[in-house]
TrEMBL record:
Residues covered by the Carbohydrate kinase FGGY C-terminal domain: 262-453
Source organism (scientific name): Cryobacterium lactosi
Keyword set, alphabetical order: ATP-binding, Disulfide bond, Kinase, Nucleotide-binding, Rhamnose metabolism, Transferase
The name this protein goes by in its record: Rhamnulokinase
GO MF term list: ATP binding; glycerol kinase activity; rhamnulokinase activity
InterPro entries (alphabetical): ATPase_NBD (IPR043129), FGGY_C (IPR018485), FGGY_N (IPR018484), Rhamnulokinase (IPR013449)
Example GO biological process: glycerol metabolic process
UniProt KW ATP-binding keyword: yes
Positions of the Carbohydrate kinase FGGY N-terminal domain: 11-252
Family: Belongs to the FGGY kinase family.
GO cellular component: cytosol
Gene3D superfamilies for the chain: 3.30.420.40
Name of one Pfam family that matches: FGGY_N
Amino acid sequence: MTKLMPHAIVAAVDLGATSGRVMLGHVGRNELRLRSVARFPNGPTPVNENGRVSLHWNISELYRNVLAGLTTAVAEEPGLVSIGVDSWAVDYALLHQGRMLQVPYHYRDDRTRPAVDTLHGIAAPGELYEANGLQFLPFNSLYQLAADQDAGTLGLADQFLLVPDLLNYWLTGVSAAERTNASTTGLLDVRTGDWNEPLISRLGFNRSLFPPLVNAGSRIGSLLPSVVAELRAASPIAVTAVGSHDTASAVVAVPATDEDFAYISCGTWGLVGVELDGPVLSAASRAANFTNEGGVDGRVRYLHNVMGLWLLSEAIRSWEAEGHSIVLADLLREAAAVTDPVAVFDADDQRFLAPGDMPTRIRACCVENGLASPRTKAEMVRSILESLADAFARGVQHASLLSGKTVREVHIVGGGSQNRLLCQLTADRLGLPVLAGPVEATAIGNVLIQARAQGLVTGSLEELRALVARSFVPERYLPARSLVRR
């Protein structure tokens, strides 16, 4: 049984593709509570590079906001004992003697297209899948590194740090790569979880670039004196490695009480999959574009990436740019009232990856595939949500079939769990119960791994999830109509 020690407080720095937050986690005897102390926007910054518009992360501004949020956290809770950082995957900084050589690129930048062909000329996609177990995504770190190699930047670097590892380095001065996020680089051995030195050498990368690997729950170090002064802390605070890939932390906080579950971590992306003890590396798995990413405690997150609510948020941005005033709650209510059939398109179509006019691209996709194009905003939103629900259902069904894992219920966590229409449509298409929530699953998972490292709670992931289920009771959606694909 999970044992709870005296009450203590940790801070979760949770960085998403569209926003960031600093959350205080209160953990104690029969207690698990979260409180937000800072929220700030995040997103791609377009930069003109020799006539080409490239997308970067404003990492300095992001770090400034993190420090401001942690300053507030320390002021409100001087007894803070630990800080943990998680973020999106694959993007990184290249450093030379501790200084960044360039501002990190955003994964939606298209610079990797030529590098994909170059790299596949060295190692074929099938060989890569056998080595790293990752689904093909053109922005995976190894393709970005190949692009930096072609540009001549990689040869100048002496250190590679993924985004959460970079922030940990700035906070502590310690270089380390947390395994769950490092597994998304394509350079870890899918069987051992260590850096794949033969593959790194074969691709022409320098092994010395890549820092020592650490597991979630490891102590990275203590805050540097300069950071302690910046935060106005009374003493150094520990920085703990969490599941630094945000999905890894989110899966920790799935409030499952039955082992036969699938999860959908739904935000900008929809990560649809199951948790396994080992990877699935079959030809059918690669053909279905399923990925084997590292989970906390050595688990495998066997999943497929779906575009997620990016489709909806980018459509709204397009309408607002045209001068329309959009109230999301009203739009969702109107979409729920649509009774005529709407187009169900392929939510994974690569044309939707880049920022831009999403409604026009969706209509073009519909026309090309003989589908009726949505005419109104309500129909467009309903079409997006029906298409996501269809993609989610197919993802769960394929994950179960390919892995052999029975699925009796599906948990939707993250921001998408608040979208009642999406949750109901997903239950309808699956013919299975859908349990929605918690919204802040990533921050909760971050907090729990810190708390366990600090001795505030002990137990397996199943025991941690039971605590989440007691503290954040999910909302249950039952299938209302028969839309199940057999």
